[in-house]
Automatic annotation (TrEMBL):
Domain Indole-3-glycerol phosphate synthase, residue spans: 12-241
Protein name as annotated: Indole-3-glycerol phosphate synthase
Organism: Natronorubrum bangense JCM 10635
Pathway membership: Amino-acid biosynthesis; L-tryptophan biosynthesis; L-tryptophan from chorismate: step 4/5
NCBIfam families according to UniProt: Indglycph_syn_Halo_TrpC
Region described as Disordered: spans on this chain: 239-261
Length: 261
């Protein structure tokens, strides 16, 4: 693994579970992926802020759990204008599953990201998706895993948290990069993380701002700092109880480009 600073206990536990989770060694998947850059261009063309909305039943930092059907959640997000859907497939800390992703991908007509903590090549073959998250900090040979991801037809979204990780991602050939505002050491979010890394990202990279985006003002701030798209989970899911309207929560962020709060 790629870092010296300590992980939060919850993240260390996530990583341990990820290392133990079996992949599939029998069958190498072949994916016909929908393009995220094309979906982003489509959203821009009709005046929507490109939002990747996340089906995230719970998480170590969530206020609670939402048990809604993942397909209904994803369809509600698309109704609210989401450009793509992210689905957690991590089972033990986020309440996700590969089956949920498969059902969502069959039901929606936008690119779907597999959000998990993939550490080995065999774990790529668990479920088909359009995009697949690789976290620089958790991967030993990033270039090899990016190659293996592309060989199967997935688009790798490579997640970084600082400039050193950005350099690692670029050297490994990443062309879709997410800057995570959540610090995996303390689990705090700080939008300045994206603002400090974004100026060093080449223009031909598709750049995603991840985590901690909770209001139209945050959306505009990340867009002004150079985000091509935003990955949003908690603010759309609203784990705090009740039946928060996922479509409306998505629409508020998608429409943030017009300056209304
Ligand atoms: O969300 C968490 O609590 C979390 C804890 C430990 C490691 C990763 C975690 N989240 C993964 C993510 O990257 C987010 O789900 C995603 O960026 C959306 O973030 P948010 O909008 O803040 O829910």
């Amino acid at each position: 693994m790629n870092s010296e600073t300590e992980l939060a206990p919850a993240v260390a536990s996530i990583l341990e579970a990820a290392r133990e989770r079996a992949g599939d060694v029998d069958a190498q998947l072949a994916v016909d992926a929908q393009s995220l850059p094309d979906a982003i261009a489509g959203a821009e063309a009709d005046g929507r802020v490109p939002v990747i909305a996340e089906v995230k039943p719970t998480s170590p930092t969530a206020d609670g759990t939402r048990d809604d059907d993942p397909v209904e959640l994803a369809q509600a997000m698309v109704d609210g204008g989401a450009t793509a859907i992210s689905v957690l497939t991590e089972p033990s800390h986020f309440g996700g599953s590969p089956e949920a992703l498969t059902r969502v991908r069959e039901a929606v007509d936008v690119p779907v990201l597999r959000k998990d903590f993939v550490v080995r090549e065999d774990q790529l073959d668990v479920v088909k998706s359009d995009l697949l998250l690789l976290i620089v900090r958790f991967v030993d040979d990033l270039e090899a895993l990016i190659t293996a991801t592309r060989e199967r037809g997935f688009q790798p979204l490579v997640e970084v948290h600082d400039r050193a990780e950005l350099e690692t991602a670029l050297e490994a050939g990443a062309d879709i990069i997410g800057v995570n505002n959540r610090d995996l050491g303390r689990l705090e979010v700080d939008l300045e993380t994206f603002e400090s890394v974004a100026p060093h990202v080449p223009d031909d990279v598709t750049l995603i701002a991840e985590s901690g985006i909770s209001s139209p003002a945050d959306v505009r701030r990340m867009r002004e700092a150079g985000a091509d798209a935003l990955l949003v989970g908690s603010a759309i899911m609203d784990h705090s109880g009740g039946d928060s309207d996922v479509t409306e929560n998505t629409r508020q962020l998608v429409d943030a480009g017009d300056g209304d709060d």
